[in-house]
Design a protein that fits this description.
The protein is an alpha/beta fold. Helix content is about 55%, strand content about 10%. The protein has helices at about 15-55, 55-65, 85-105, 140-150, 150-155, 175-185, 205-220, 230-245, 245-255, 270-285, 310-315, 325-340, 350-355, 360-380, 385-390, 395-400, 405-415, 430-445, 450-455, 465-480, 480-495; strands spanning about 5, 10-15, 70-75, 80-85, 115-120, 195-200, 225-230, 260-265, 290-295, 320. The strands form three sheets. It has a five-stranded parallel β-sheet, sandwiched between helices. A three-stranded mixed β-sheet has the order 3-4-5. A two-stranded antiparallel sheet has the order 1-2. α17 runs antiparallel to α18 and α18 crosses α20. The longest helix is centred in the N-terminal third of the chain and has 39 residues, at about 15-55. The chain is globular, with a radius of gyration of 29 Å. Pfam families: Bac_DnaA, Bac_DnaA_C, DnaA_N. This is Chromosomal replication initiator protein DnaA.
Length: about 500
């Protein structure tokens, strides 16, 4: 039996078995829809990762990563994929539609057609956050609420990665200048220099510092408007604004930010009109005391095809160089990352092996550690040197640079200022013997050569002489700070 009652506002509420069954049915339908949405998101994550491997990091970040999942119609088998602008939607549809369609058909047989469009309720250009991180589709109301939020929420709407903060950035001699300059730029106090130009090769941390500046500035100045984008994305939005006759809105929006962060400025090469607009934007921001940070993989003077006036603006503040991480910094980074895991799971010799071997960039170093730990956890195997060599073959082979004994001898002779012939001579003067022993030690540490092979390279000496030299230098490093410093310096030179 169903009992109906009247509420104070006149709304009639039904109670009884039929109502409860209806409620359960509605809840069941909602849970099914939620599960289907989760399954679609999981499939898209797998497809996206596969495309990243096929297309490369740059193309994936620029065109595939911004794709947002739309609705899937079971009756027609049509899946909607949305992009933030007409330009990007047309570009992806022209170049990647077949790849995306095939990938989805393999992942889900019921998907018969993939439709790539702009979301019908996309935000107007003045509100569009260039370079924003992809997320689930949101309504216009939730978008407006996110844009109106303050502090950290503002930084997220500007496309900042919440994990890339100063607290997660490990400093060493290679990056301390850039990190200190970045912290000044993100602080509440007015920095002594602007713009800040961060120069570093791929994977050394310049993008991390850009995001960290944004987070720090959002915390120091709640409500500040922060804008992060790549130079390539800047160009795309610039072209779109021109085509849609919205240049005034584009300029006003761009110059209304309190902090402008532009990554990979080298990709703006050769685009005269875009360079001109960026030049005027820099002048407008600096004229009213706003902040600008740019990052590139080369110095301003090495940017080919960039107008001299723009080069002058980019160089007028501080150019902070991030050098490749030396072995000490690589060790610190690995130890910092291990704080997220059970450090006892990773033996010290594995950390030392990774720090010495994966030396091209920090991104590969951290990725290698994450992959090793994940594999060990998922398979139940203990982390070991053998497991590292088996599972990180691609990363290790790409990072290994063959250091020769001849190169070691030449570097040691230059360091200690002795003649190269002394490496093979029979002289036993201390000024000659000690550099020779150091060279033997480094040859054993940095090359796969056996003791007899090393001995032959040092004037045909017996393998026992090499063993004595290696053990002596190992002992001296623990007791003599000067000797340890010499060896560390030589290791940095040889591994750089």
């Amino acid at each position: 039996m169903v009992i109906a009652t009247a509420t104070q506002d006149g709304v009639r509420v039904a109670h009884g078995p039929a109502t409860r069954q209806g409620a359960r049915r509605v809840a069941g339908e909602a849970s099914i829809e939620d599960q289907e949405a989760l399954d679609l998101a999981a499939d898209w994550s797998d497809i996206s990762q596969g495309l990243r491997k096929d297309l490369g990091q740059q193309l994936h970040t620029q065109w595939i990563k911004p794709i947002q999942l739309g609705c899937f119609c079971k009756e027609t088998g049509t899946l909607d994929l949305f992009l933030p602008t007409e330009f990007s939607a047309n570009w992806v549809a022209d170049r990647f539609a077949d790849r995306l369609s095939l990938a989805w058909k393999i992942a889900r047989q019921e998907v018969r057609q993939v439709r790539i469009t702009v979301h019908p309720r996309r935000r107007a250009l003045p509100e569009l956050q260039i370079g924003a991180r992809p997320a689930a589709l949101v309504t216009m109301e939730s978008s407006a609420a996110a844009l109106n939020s303050r502090g950290i929420a503002d930084s997220l709407s500007a496309g900042l990665d919440p994990s890339l903060t100063f607290a997660e950035f490990v400093t060493g001699t290679a990056n301390v200048l850039a990190c200190n300059a970045a912290q000044r730029m993100g602080a509440e106090a007015v920095p002594q220099f602007s713009p800040l130009y961060l120069k570093a090769s791929t994977g050394q941390g310049k993008t991390h510092l850009l995001h960290a500046i944004g987070h720090a500035f959002a915390a120091a100045r709640p409500g500040a408007r922060i804008f992060y984008c790549s130079a390539e994305r800047f160009m795309i939005e610039f072209v779109q604004a021109m085509r849609q006759n919205e240049m005034l809105e584009f300029k006003a929006r761009l110059r209304g930010f309190d902090l402008l962060l532009v990554d990979d400025i080298q990709f703006i090469i050769g685009k005269a009109s875009t360079q001109e607009e960026l030049l005027h934007t820099i002048d407008a921001l600096l004229a009213v005391g706003k902040r600008l940070v740019v990052a590139a993989d080369r110095a301003p003077q090495a940017l080919d095809g960039v107008e001299q006036r723009l080069l002058s603006r980019l160089s007028m503040g501080l150019v902070a160089d991030i050098q490749p991480a030396d072995i000490e910094l690589r060790r610190q980074i690995l130890e910092h990352r291990l704080a997220r895991f059970n450090a006892s799971q990773v033996p010290a010799d594995v950390i030392e092996f990774l720090a010495r071997t994966i030396n091209r960039n920090v991104r590969e170093l951290v990725g290698g550690l994450n992959k090793l730990i994940a594999y060990a956890q998922l398979t139940g195997q203990p982390v070991s040197l053998q497991l590292a060599e088996e599972q990180l073959t691609d990363i290790l082979s790409a990072n290994r640079r063959r250091i020769t004994i001849d190169e070691i001898q030449r570097t040691v002779c230059q360091f200690y200022r002795v003649d190269r012939t002394e490496m093979a001579s029979k002289r036993r003067a201390r000024a000659v013997v000690r550099p020779r022993q150091v060279a033997m030690y480094l040859a054993k540490v940095l090359t796969p050569r056996s003791y007899p092979e090393i001995g032959r390279k040092f004037g045909g000496r017996d393998h026992s002489t090499v063993i004595h030299a290696v053990r002596l230098i190992e002992d001296l490093r623990t007791r003599d700070a000067d000797m340890d410093g010499d060896v560390r310096s030589l290791l940095r030179q040889l591994e750089s």
